[in-house]
Amino acid sequence: MIDEQNFKKILVPVDGSHSCLNAKMLASSIARKFKSKVTVVHVISHEFMHPELKAQYQLPPSILHRVDELYLQAGKKIIRNAEEMFREAKIDIDSRLVTYEDPAEFILQLVKDEGYDLVVIGNRAETQSERYSLGSVTEKVARHAECPVLIVKQKPKVEKILTAVDGSKHADKALEYAVQLANNYSANLALLHVEEDKLVRIGGPQVVDCVGTVGECILKDASTKAKGVSFDKFLKFGSPAEVIIKVAKKANVDIIVVGSRGLSSVRRYLLGSVSDDISMHAKSSVLIVR
Fold it and tell me: Domain 4-152 classified CATH 3.40.50.40?
């Protein structure tokens, strides 16, 4: 089992969006479960910060100063609202309000410098058609942060958790996080192993039997690590990302937990691309574990 200290310092980037509200609510829930300290950060970044745009618009300093003031006031309100929400939940809260050209770069550096255990961030997409896709800041943070990143895409409910297992150390780490969350939330855990369907097409029935046996062994090993929680096991064939997303959608999973990289039991592949696809296209919230 993982040490609950891994959830003690949580960073929550805030921007006032609806997806950010869901992220704050889920971060608050996790913080209460694990007695975590939360830092909320808002990074002020607007087009007139870039020198080339200042020159292009040729705006007088008085107008630029007024724009800066408006962004600053909006940022203060965002931080104040976040602080009030966490304090009402009796959570130890700290806040940062900074001006920086690249919000994602600042967040990544903050994670590195301050040693956060978890980043909880909204997916940032605001339109109906883009609701489950990622904003550029979230995508960059999810790919490059040195700690696990929880991308929140829906209401903060933790009743059903799915984790993909493949026998790799990264997948095992993801499993540990999934089990820890399932334990604390009394949630149902789905253990899913996916073998790529191209192996079946190329190898025929004998390969299917062999791969299936290996998959069953991986699931059996994962089951021993999930003792104490309610879980189901699934062995599927197909494109890993597509299958994970499909199973999660059918089961109405609240959080998908995946490792940032993995190693297939039969064929080596980077789970990095799988976690990217899941982060981009899943309707469930996604926890990427490193």
Answer: no
Write down the mean pLDDT value for the chain: 86
| Count, residues in the chain | 290
What pLDDT digit, counting tens, does each position of 124-163 carry? 755 444 454 457 899 999 999 999 999 999 989 999 999 9
Tokens of 137: 């800041």
Q: Does pLDDT of 36 surpass 50?
A: yes
pLDDT in the model for residue 265: 39
- CATH 3.40.50.620 in the chain is located at 4-152, 160-289
Task: Write out the CATH class of domain 160-289.
Answer: alpha beta
- Whole-model pTM: value is 0.88
Contact 126, 70 (CB under 8 A): no
Q: Please report which confidence band the pLDDT of residue 222 belongs to, taking 50, 70 and 90 as the band edges.
A: very high
